[in-house]
Structure formats: structure tokens, C-alpha cells
Amino acid sequence: DVCSSDLWNNIMNSKKLKHKFLWNYTDFQNLRPNQYDHILGLLSYNHFDYEIDRVEKKPIQEPSIVEMTKKSIELLSVNKNGYFLLIEGYIKFISIIIFFKHMLNHFFII
């Protein structure tokens, strides 16, 4: 939502913090440790595609949960005080029998 990102940007600017609002896969891929004080990533308008569907899109438009986890560890590991990272996937959401193929594919990619 543009209004929400504008509000967040205004707060970060008022605190004079280096910040980045991510909204696409390219920006996500280009993130490097110590580049920003705060990062807000909204990389999907609704929910992320199932892995089996995500990789079929050319070019790939959103990161996988594995990529997001690796990037989070890369960015947070430079903090001398340590960090806490909680990863939540959507296995419970797709575990309905109709989505069994998607659930298995998502589970085994991790």
C-alpha cells in the first residue's frame, strides 16, 4: 500500500535512518549487509506463490522462503549483539488435501 510505505518512509526520514522499502525481486537480490539501518519488504500484493508455481514464472518475480531466510541471516549476522529470526511458512495453509502436491513440493525444497 503506497500510503503505508509513505508513512514508513516519513518515519525513517524523520529519524535520519538509512532505509529501504523493497517491493521487487531485483531490490531484494541487491541487498547487502550494513547497507541500511532498516528494511521493509513487501514483495507480494497478496500471498507468495507456491514454490512449484513460483519457479515456472520467467523471469522469477519473488524470492523463495529459502532465499528470504538466507538473505535474512546474511543481513542480520553482522549485528554484534546477535539477532532473533522467526521464519513462518504457509505449510499449515496449504495442507488441505487439494493442495497436497504443492505442500510436498514446498516441504522438500526447504
Brief overview, please?
The protein has 110 residues and is mainly alpha-helical. The protein has six helices and two strands; from the N terminus they run αβαβαααα.
Keywords:
110 residues, mainly alpha, two-stranded parallel sheet, 7% strand, globular
Please give the share of residues in helix: 40-55%
Number of strands: 2
Strand order of the largest sheet: 1-2
Please write the string of helix (H) and strand (E) elements: HEHEHHHH
What is the molecular shape? globular
Structural class: mainly alpha
Average pLDDT reading: 83
Number of helices: 6
Question: If you had to describe this structure to a student in words, what would you say it looks like?
Answer:
- The chain is mainly alpha-helical.
- The protein has six helices and two strands, in the order αβαβαααα.
- The chain has a two-stranded parallel ribbon.
- The longest helix is centred in the first third of the chain and has 13 residues, at 2-14.
- The two termini are 30 Å apart.
Q: What is the topological layout?
A:
Blueprint: H1 2-14, E1 19-22, H2 25-29, E2 38-41, H3 51-54, H4 65-76, H5 91-94, H6 100-109
Parallel strand pairs: 1-2
